[in-house]
Amino acid sequence: MVMAMSDSAASRLRRQLESGGFDPRLYVKQLSQQSDGDRDLQEHRQRIQALAEETAQNLKRNVYQNYRQFIETAREISYLESEMYQLSHLLTEQKSSLESIPLTLLPAAAAAAAGAAAASGGEEGGGGAGGRDHLRGQAGFFPSPGGASRDSSGPGEEGKQRTLTTLLEKVEGCRHLLETPGQYLVYNGDLVEYEADHMAQLQRVHGFLMNDCLLVATWLPQRRGMYRYNALYPLDGLAVVNVKDNPPMKDMFKLLMFPESRIFQAENAKIKREWLEVLEETKRALSEKRRREQEEAAAPRGPPQVTSKASNPFEDEDDDEPAAPEVEEDKVDLSMEWIQELPEDLDVCIAQRDFEGAVDLLDKLNHYLEDKPSPPPVKELRAKVDERVRQLTEVLVFELSPDRSLRGGPKATRRAVSQLIRLGQCTKACELFLRNRAAAVHTAIRQLRIEGATLLYIHKLCHVFFTSLLETAREFETDFAGTDSGCYSAFVVWARSAMGMFVDAFSKQVFDSKESLSTAAECVKVAKEHCQQLGDIGLDLTFIIHALLVKDIQGALHSYKEIIIEATKHRNSEEMWRRMNLMTPEALGKLKEEMKSCGVSNFEQYTGDDCWVNLSYTVVAFTKQTMGFLEEALKLYFPELHMVLLESLVEIILVAVQHVDYSLRCEQDPEKKAFIRQNASFLYETVLPVVEKRFEEGVGKPAKQLQDLRNASRLIRVNPESTTSVV
């Protein structure tokens, strides 16, 4: 029974762990709440560990069984492949022989007509053997698996075209190639394609090299000798790179076709060398052919024949200027080698990430074609170059994308930004640079660990953010110096957005966590000090940080004001109007220092004999709390907070003034009334002037509301017996 319950519990646990909506955190939380103690958790941990070991054993068992089945299947496939290979080889030879019979038997038929009597069975057998040998020579264009062949028989353009047609009939999905005039096969062979990053084998392919392009077809295993069209690459946009042997990876070469690249492996080193040589030769021949065509197109035509005046009496005497000068103006020399190889050189530079070299070539071409006409050859060249410029721009844009690594700081983007600016893409370079730096700043803030005291975290946050902002500003000034001033406006907009990101993290840690006003004031002070450092480069963002923080600071001032008012009301409710007895001289000395730090310099006159203070505890506590609030609030002060701070001070002071006024009017005991009047005198003649003076020093201008409040208090001193409230 116990075993059955254990199996049931294990099965239930397995189903729970395998469910699609399983949440580990929630599971552990519920388990901790339901467990009775450490023993239950240990037992549950042992059950999970046993389940993990059982799962691992099942996985090993399944892998072993699948591995055995895989070996058996691979062995059967190998046998079948061998048989199919033999059958395909026989069928290919038979087809080649049948197609070549008319070509090989025409000379034999003529000879047989001249000497039919001398023909014998042995001669016929010899003729058949010779025919088969000749057919084998022609069948070199029809590759056997794993082989490669080169068109060296020179059967003429018609023969080359016919051979290409026969070959392409073996490739599905490339009928459109048969309609290209003047196209013929140069070389073909089997290759194995590998993945560029991890060098994992992808597929078997067959390459067909024509005089102007390279066709890649994939091998169809279910139809031996047949292929499916995969890709077609023009030779003028193709770069060939030899891949150094690194056993077991050897006999490989790479084809670069922006924006992709492919790696192929030949059967052996000899075939690899043949592929490299024939590709370079064919590309060179195609380039030479294109150059000759451009020279012929740019060559001046003969001047038009002009009819003599004798034969054309109606011709105007002024209309006899030849058209030859116009033809001379349209002539542009494009036969130079560097111009002919420019598209290919640009492809190589882009593939090798030589962005500076690519832009240098473009500048050289633009300088050469400057102030020159644009005949058709020049327009064709510019069309090819513009395509490479588009490809280069895409690569540079990708280099600046936030998906790339953000390490290295803003200097890591200088290379791509400078080349985009040289290409005339200043606006795009500015946008991508700022987007990249925004992602970097966001990542740096997100990776900052929240640990320790709030002030320590704010120091780290300010250092990370403002250092990044300062480095970005300096790099921006270096990269975009001399460009359109609109880029600087874009930077200011970006800086404001980045400051918003900083304030979000700042407020979440300082204000949302309900820190004390003193801590919030210190944190804001640190942020302001770091922000002022940007003034060294002429960037003042202080007004932005004020605008973004004003709402949070208003909330903090209001919240702390309410705390002081509630505390003051609570002390007022328990007020007994008795003198303070601090018991020890040390306590009295400490109170004197506190009151002196609050700005009350004449506190000595309110101290009595021994350790007595001729003031109420409520008034002394109110003085310290109010002056502390004022000092911290002045650290947070900026003009937008003037009325908020002033109204908060007035509300706090009114609570004390109302309490003294009420006590003075209601108290009947002469001694206590005299003591209340003494506290009122301290409050009106000492505390309020200190508050008013400190506020004026911190803000820079006097506060009329505080002056009116102090003047209104004189009515109480003039007529203390009045039962009318003046507040």
UniProtKB/TrEMBL annotation:
PROSITE patterns: PH_DOMAIN. InterPro entries: Cullin_repeat-like_dom_sf, Exo84, Exo84_C, Exo84_C_1, Exo84_C_2, PH-like_dom_sf, PH_domain. Residues 314-330 have a biased composition (Acidic residues). Residues 119-161, 287-330 are annotated as: Disordered. SUPFAM superfamilies: Cullin repeat-like, PH domain-like. Keywords: Exocytosis, Protein transport, Transport. Residues 184-284 form the PH domain. Its main location: other. Pfam families: Exo84_C, VPS51_Exo84_N. Gene3D superfamilies: Exo84p, C-terminal helical domain, Exo84p, N-terminal helical domain, Pleckstrin-homology domain (PH domain)/Phosphotyrosine-binding domain (PTB). It comes from the Eukaryota. It is found in: Cell projection, Growth cone; Cytoplasm, Perinuclear region. Belongs to the EXO84 family. Component of the exocyst complex involved in the docking of exocytic vesicles with fusion sites on the plasma membrane. This is Exocyst complex component 8. It comes from Vicugna pacos (Alpaca).
